């Protein structure tokens, strides 16, 4: 629970200045692949400074998620694409964490992990089962197919998350200027 990782190597996200640190929290049910995603991101050497928190997904640990997501720039929610029986539980937890007042508008990257396996649900089905369109217009999200073991899809997902974070920051700056 609460494995943290900071990285400032070169090669993963060349579009992000290396002086900019982002607070990203990796969440998801137990056995979804959160730690594998974390390690794959680390070994692919991200260029930006990320502060990743891989928070345990066991039911008794989920109330602690709120503590880690406070002031987060983005959330990565990892879902096991093969575990259709727990999709409703994943949906409940995803919606619970994104509806917290302090997480309103925080971009969410939903990693559809284990897409390499034969019984993996398709993206359209996962989007429907997770009710991603019900997250609300104020919560930007992206559903990314991935295989965390080999890192497939993670770079594209993190690039999309970065773009959503940058867009949100720009909108917040513009809003701040208008209120002056």
Automatic annotation (TrEMBL):
Name of the protein in its database record: ADP-ribosylation factor-like protein 4A
Record keywords: ER-Golgi transport, Golgi apparatus, GTP-binding, Lipoprotein, Magnesium, Metal-binding, Myristate, Nucleotide-binding, Protein transport, Transport
Transmembrane parts of this sequence: none
Family listed: Belongs to the small GTPase superfamily. Arf family.
Residues bound to Mg(2+): 35
Chief location of this protein within or outside the cell: Golgi
Residues bound to GTP: 28-35, 57, 113-116
Pfam family, one: Arf
Gene3D superfamilies: P-loop containing nucleotide triphosphate hydrolases
Organism: Muraenolepis orangiensis
GO molecular function: GTP binding; GTPase activity; metal ion binding
Localization (cell): Golgi apparatus
Gene Ontology biological process terms, A to Z: protein transport; vesicle-mediated transport
A cellular-component GO term for this protein: Golgi apparatus
């Amino acid at each position: 629970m609460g494995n943290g990782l900071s990285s400032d190597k070169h090669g993963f996200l060349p579009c992000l200045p290396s002086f900019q640190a982002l607070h990203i929290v990796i969440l998801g049910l137990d056995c979804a692949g959160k730690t594998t995603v974390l390690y794959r991101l680390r070994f692919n050497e991200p260029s930006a400074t990320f502060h990743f928190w891989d928070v345990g997904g066991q039911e008794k640990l989920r109330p602690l998620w709120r503590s880690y997501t406070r002031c987060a720039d983005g959330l990565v929610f990892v879902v096991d694409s093969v575990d259709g029986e727990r999709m409703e539980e994943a949906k409940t937890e995803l919606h619970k964490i994104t509806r917290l007042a302090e997480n309103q508008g925080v971009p969410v990257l939903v990693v559809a992990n284990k897409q390499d396996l034969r019984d993996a649900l398709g993206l359209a089905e996962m989007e429907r089962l997770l009710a991603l369109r019900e997250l609300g217009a104020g919560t930007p999200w992206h559903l990314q197919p991935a295989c965390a073991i080999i890192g497939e899809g993670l770079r594209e997902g993190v690039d999309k998350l970065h773009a959503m974070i940058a867009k949100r920051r720009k909108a917040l700056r513009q809003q701040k200027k208008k209120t002056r």
